[in-house]
Amino acid sequence: MTPLADVRTALHAALVEQLGYVGLPADSIHAIAPDELATPTAWIVSPFGLRPEDPRTIVAEVSVIVVVDGAEPAQLANLDDLTAAAWVALELVGTATLAGPTVLSAGGPNLHAVTVSGDVDVDVRTLCPPALELAELPRSIRR
User: Fold this and answer.
1) Is residue 142 in a domain?
2) Nearest to 40 by CA among 95, 89, 86, 3
């Protein structure tokens, strides 16, 4: 697996655990966007953004979308709990940084969604970069 796949796997496991505490079944929590949208649901957004966090660390900018059907008052009332649980899941594998409303173009006007984003360490750069040394040129190349 790649480091990004490891991040997705760890985040998905954390989401299953945390969203399960607020009543979202494991089969409604997806590692990638589901083919069919059945609410309530959550999934990890692709692709991840990568950036250097500091001189030593590379982080993945990861987002989770939580969606409910606003036509059902119980789901809409549960959106805060689902958002908080997704935030905690991101905190378990990295650092949650932002949660905000999200507009979805599928499913009609009753869908309500929140995107929870965070940073997860993917790679650590060595403190001692390799020293470059001049190679001795073969005699046939020397002048």
Assistant:
1) no
2) 86
Reading the block at residue 136, the tokens are 């001795």
pLDDT digits (tens, 9 = 90+) for 116-128: 999 998 876 665 6
**CATH number, domain with residue 106:** 3.30.70.1700
Interatomic CA distance for residues 7 and 39, integer angstroms: 25
Give residue 63's domain range. Answer: 3-124
pTM above 0.90, yes or no: no
pLDDT at 40 over 80: yes
Residue 26 domain-assigned? Answer: yes
Residue 66 pairs with which residues in a beta bridge?
42, 114
d(C-alpha 73, C-alpha 140), whole Å:
81
Helix, strand, coil distribution of the chain in percent, nearest 5 = 30, 30, 40
**Number of domains making up the chain:** 1
